[in-house]
Design goal:
- The model has no long low-confidence stretch (mean pLDDT about 95).
- The protein is globular.
- The protein has a 6-stranded parallel beta sheet with strand order 3-2-1-4-5-6, sandwiched between helices.
- Helix 9 links the parallel strand 5 and strand 6.
- The protein is built from 10 helices and 6 strands, in the order E-H-H-H-H-H-E-H-E-H-E-H-E-H-E-H.
- By secondary structure, it is an alpha/beta fold.
Length: about 220
């Protein structure tokens, strides 16, 4: 029986993956690098220690990850300050359900704590979570299992009874390695063949997670 639910953030709860894609490309092109959509999709939820060698292998050893990322963050922050951020469909319904049925909840995200707190507070969603675990709090980021294992430990539940909600292959791999039930809610791409093998379920929106939990409660 599922006893806790752990959420990724970008692309799952908040509609920011489209902004990450847009501004990674814009920043890279401004810096003179021929980054393409597939390069950005490949680093979703990927910790910097893994993303840097991956991008340098694909775009050349001179790819300046820190410079491009800094510009990407500046461009994206300017966009958010002007337009705000949107939450993904079904988030409120799922969070209300989890709160009503007293499921412990956590966020496990590659985004830093300051931005995670700011984004979720702006949508009045921070109060729904018992724990926030960011990549800086663990030794290895996704696709290593550390962040999910830390979230389970902070919730004081075994990973084997946790549902992990993700939108990216790297996040699904991290949850799978942690021994959780990985559920994918696709955002920018559908699960590839390898990712599909790791899934407990793939659903169309966050509200579709509720029937999964209802079945577990029977």
């Amino acid at each position: 029986m599922i006893k806790a639910v752990i959420f990724d953030m970008d692309g799952l709860m908040i509609d920011t993956e489209k902004l990450l894609l847009k501004y990674w490309l814009e920043a890279a092109h401004q810096c003179g690098y021929p980054m393409r959509k597939e390069h950005v999709l490949g680093i979703r939820s990927l910790a910097a220690k893994y993303a840097v060698p991956k991008l340098q292998a694909e775009l050349g050893p001179d790819f300046d990850y820190d410079k491009v990322r800094k510009l990407r963050m500046e461009l994206m922050q300017a966009h958010i300050e002007k337009y705000g951020i949107e939450e993904k469909s079904g988030l409120g319904e799922l969070l209300d359900y989890l709160k009503k049925h007293r499921y412990p909840t956590a966020v496990a995200t590659a985004t830093d704590l300051e931005r995670t707190t700011r984004y979720l507070t702006s949508l009045d969603r921070l109060r729904y979570f018992d724990q926030i675990v960011c990549v800086s709090m663990v030794e290895n980021g996704k696709p290593a299992p550390d962040i999910y294992l830390e979230a389970a430990a902070r919730l004081r539940v075994d990973p084997s009874v946790c549902l992990a909600l993700e939108d990216s292959p790297n996040g699904i791999l991290a949850a799978c390695r942690a021994g959780m039930y990985p559920v994918m809610v696709p955002d920018l791409s559908q699960p590839d063949e390898e990712t599909a093998k790791r899934l407990y379920r793939c659903v169309g929106s966050l509200s579709d997670v509720i029937p999964l939990l209802e079945n577990e409660r029977i």
